[in-house]
Amino acid sequence: MFCGIDEAGRGPIAGPLVVAGVIILEEIEGLDDSKKLTEKKREKLYEEIIKKSKYHIVFKDNQTIDERGISYCLKSSIEEIIKELGENSYLMDGNTSFGIKDLEHKIKADATIKEVSAASILAKVSRDRYMCEVSSKFPNYDFEKHKGYGTKAHVEKIKKFGRCSQHRYSFKLKALGEENIGFQKSLF
């Protein structure tokens, strides 16, 4: 057995980064890249994955992303998953292993490797649920609609109300005349 790892929330301008690791213990039908599934299908699969897998989900809040950088948050989350799940083999969706020993990586693994697909679903659903939960505390931003991604409507809300405590201040917005678009510290 091996552990598939994927993340949700690397690119949004608000909310946490969520990284999940999954070791599938029983057959699960219908797994795919979370972005290719409807919200209803993801929610159904989420519950099945939780029941039929060994898993670990890590949240890194927006303040930690601002303070330490997205690369640090990804690497430390993966290291926590490896420590928690204790498998010998790990595969991460993407094009880097972040210098982590025993971590392999593969582009589009979330669409081709069932363990990574399952991790993709756990990360996405966990993050989406979080953004819907905090939406009621920050009603000016409609987080339940865009989940913190930099949509035109979200940027318009920031123009009108400024950023709130859920926003990533290190992610600069060209629409607001800010420099260093996509600035991301790397501290590993």
Count of domain modules: 1
Distance between the termini: 29 Å
The strand order across the widest sheet is 3-2-1-4-5
CATH architecture: 2-Layer Sandwich
What Rg is obtained from the alpha carbons, in whole angstroms? 17 Å
Considering the protein shown, what is the CATH homologous superfamily?
A: Ribonuclease H-like superfamily/Ribonuclease H
State the secondary-structure class. Answer: alpha/beta
Query: In sequence order, what are the helices and strands, one letter per element?
Result: EEHEHHEEHHHH
Q: State the CATH class.
A: Alpha Beta
GO molecular function: manganese ion binding; RNA binding; RNA-DNA hybrid ribonuclease activity
Keywords: Cytoplasm, Endonuclease, Hydrolase, Manganese, Metal-binding, Nuclease
Organism: Halarcobacter anaerophilus
InterPro entries: RNase_HII, RNase_HII/HIII, RNase_HII/HIII_dom, RNaseH-like_sf, RNaseH_sf
What's the quick description here?
The chain is built from seven helices and five strands.
How is this structure best described in words?
By secondary structure, this protein is an alpha/beta fold. It has one domain: Ribonuclease H-like superfamily/Ribonuclease H (Nucleotidyltransferase, domain 5, 2-Layer Sandwich). 41% of the residues lie in helices and 16% in strands. The chain contains seven helices and five strands. The protein has a five-stranded mixed beta sheet, sandwiched between helices. Strand 1 (3-8) and strand 2 form a beta hairpin. Helix 1 crosses helix 5 (114-135) and helix 2 packs across helix 3. Residues 181-188 have low confidence and may be disordered.
